[in-house]
Specification:
The chain is α/β, with parallel strands linked by helices and 229 residues long. The chain contains four helices and eight strands. Strands 1, 2, 3, 4, 5, 6, 7 and 8 form an eight-stranded mixed β-sheet that branches.
């Protein structure tokens, strides 16, 4: 029965349009050890071994600064523009769009700001990284055979979180995901016939917020001051 539930959960997870952390390096406040967490695939791993300074991770930054992610070496393809001539512009604007999405999400943790080229943060966290692949997929293939995986969009990126006060990288991880098995109608997280990359970037920004939050879904919160006996 348990194996059946695991298989069903895996199928459901694979079919959802979303972004997932595929590999993580964690530096603890002491800065003496790093815990490497390498997932077996983009959906998570079965076993995680950590050797850290008491295992306490960095949290609650006073401010968050975002530097638009590098995209110069990324593969940029698929349904991204109306013509090949427009593609370089769309590629150049992708980091600007993602920085805005990321700011909207990370403001839930601490005051967030997008840095200009000449600016450097003095306190808090610096969030930066680079895109590896931005693929908008094929909307027509999604229309006809999207439920079978045709025309999938894909977004792969690397994220680095630096504690500016200590000058230490506290979290560093890879992310991957996309529209997956979404068909012509799309979902709240997938575009269907629309531009999938915009959805992928919002999903990625939200996943970064969830990853860096202690309890993003507010599980266990209560409104009563005491529990009845």
């Amino acid at each position: 029965m348990k194996s059946l539930i695991v298989v069903a959960s895996s199928v459901l997870l694979c079919s959802c349009a979303d972004m997932y952390v595929s590999h993580t390096d964690v530096s603890t406040p002491g800065g003496r050890n790093v815990a490497a967490i390498d997932a077996k695939d983009v959906y998570g791993s079965k076993g995680v071994h950590m050797i850290t300074n008491c295992g306490v991770g960095a949290a609650n930054p006073p401010a968050i600064y975002i530097r638009p992610f590098c995209i110069d070496t990324a593969v940029f393809k698929g349904d991204e523009a109306l013509s090949d001539g427009e593609m370089p512009i769309r590629k150049a604007l992708a980091p600007v769009e993602f920085a805005s999405d990321l700011k909207e999400q990370l403001e839930k943790i601490a005051p967030a700001r997008i840095l200009k080229d000449s600016e450097k943060p003095r306190v808090g966290w610096l969030v930066e990284g680079n895109f590896t692949l931005v693929d908008g997929g094929d909307p027509y293939a999604r229309f006809f055979l999207g439920s079978l995986g045709a025309g999938q969009s894909e977004l792969i990126l690397h994220v680095r979180i630096t504690d500016v006060d200590r000058g230490t990288v506290v979290y560093e991880f890879d992310m991957a995901g996309g529209s997956r098995f979404q068909g012509r109608h799309g979902t709240l997280r997938a575009s269907g016939l629309g531009r999938a990359t915009h959805f992928d970037m919002v999903n990625a920004a939200e996943r970064i917020y969830i990853t860096l939050s202690t309890n993003p879904y507010r599980y266990g919160e209560r409104h009563d001051l005491t529990l009845p006996e």
